[in-house]
Design goal:
heterodimer, A: mainly alpha, 3 helices, B: mainly alpha, two-stranded antiparallel sheet, disordered N terminus, disordered C terminus
């Protein structure tokens, strides 16, 4: 398969993840959609690495995975702190700074 | 391992047909799972759909000559990150499903339009970009995938590698600080607990369900010595049933000795 197919698939997954971030209310699901977007980016990185015939793209994808893991850890800890304070995981309920 | 997993760019015709078949199957599965992920209501179902997408992507990494990334994807993402998600879902409440009420008017339609717009822009840009066929095996990638990656990470990318180490430590400390709960009241000691129990009036523990009742199921309230039922003995999540209600006995050959005790 040509790398263009993989890049097109990664575009589709990225857009689905972005729509999910915009549509969903549950903060955990929003996080999962962000993970989906990061995964789509990784797929594009790997496809480009194969296209260029070197391994730099794979190294970048590896770093993206590390940063995503750190992001998930901190994000879920923030989520739990918010849930403890407001008894809700909905992004609509965290509106203290709204006005 | 890389010979087994990596589809050689200069393979035979049958190889390319097999790779194309696997690609289309995986693409359909992953896009369907991703769509299901943003459509299902329960957070646990979303997590399972995300796991499907990640496993499909791991297979695609393996098909594109990145076996190390495929295994890291399975171990780190599907193994660790998704388990973390499931832990948080468990802590926050497994029944936390999304509300279907639109708080902003027309937000879904706007989000769909934005998604379509983003899709068109991205597809146009990759259509204009010169994305050629896969490169033939060169000196950079004909060595073992793991060796090549290690060489790159520890030479060219050694500084970003160190920075990600610092990032991981910071994230771990930050998660511990955020998840730590400060005690506002001192922890009750054993003496405090004993004093509280004496002050409450009844020293004995609550009767367990089924004591002196006709059946010993968990939703049968215990009968007190005077024949009345004790609502304390049944868990709050179970609706207490009538203790004298007749149910078909599980083992008919055994008499019900509790009946005489309850009536006497």
């Amino acid at each position: 398969m040509s790398p263009i197919h993989y890049v097109a698939l990664s575009v589709i997954l990225f857009v689905i993840g972005g729509v999910g971030v915009l549509v969903r209310r549950n903060a955990i699901v929003v996080f999962m959609c962000i993970e989906l977007m990061l995964n789509a980016c990784n797929l594009a990185f790997v496809a480009f690495a194969r296209m260029h015939g070197n391994l730099d793209g794979q190294v970048i994808a590896f770093f993206v995975m590390v940063v995503a893991a750190a992001e998930v850890v901190v994000g879920l800890a923030i989520l739990m702190a918010i849930f403890r304070a407001r008894r809700s995981a909905s992004v609509d309920d965290a509106n203290l700074l709204k006005y | 391992m890389s010979h087994v997993l990596a589809a050689a760019p200069s393979g035979t015709n049958a190889d390319s047909i097999a790779v194309a078949t696997i690609f289309w199957i995986l693409a359909v599965i992953s896009v369907g799972a991703a769509l299901a992920m943003i459509l299902v209501r329960r957070a646990v179902h979303c997590a399972i759909m995300l796991a499907v997408v990640m496993l499909c992507l791991a297979t695609m990494y393996a098909m594109q000559g990145a076996p190390f990334l495929a295994f890291v994807q399975i171990i780190v993402y599907t193994g660790a990150v998704l388990m973390l998600f499931l832990f948080v879902i468990m802590l926050i409440g497994i029944s936390s499903s999304d509300s279907v009420v639109e708080t902003i008017k027309g937000q879904r339609a706007a989000a769909g339009l934005a998604g379509i717009g983003l899709f068109v822009i991205l597809i146009l840009s990759i259509g204009h970009a010169a994305i050629g066929p896969a490169a033939r095996t060169t000196a950079a990638n004909n060595v073992d995938n793991l060796t090549g990656l290690a060489r790159l990470i520890f030479t060219t990318y050694v500084f970003p590698f160190e920075v990600t180490g610092a990032l991981l430590i910071t994230a771990a400390v930050g998660a511990m600080v955020l998840a730590h709960r400060e005690r506002t009241t001192p922890k009750p000691t054993q003496r405090d607990l004993a004093a509280r129990r004496l002050a409450s009036g009844h020293l004995a523990p609550d009767p367990s369900p089924g004591v002196y009742a006709l059946h010993d199921a968990a939703d049968r309230p215990a009968l007190l010595p005077d024949g009345s039922t004790s609502v304390l003995s049944v868990s709050q999540t179970l609706a207490p049933r009538d203790p004298n209600e007749e149910t078909p006995p599980v083992r008919p050959e055994l008499p019900a000795p509790a009946a005489t005790e309850a009536e006497s």
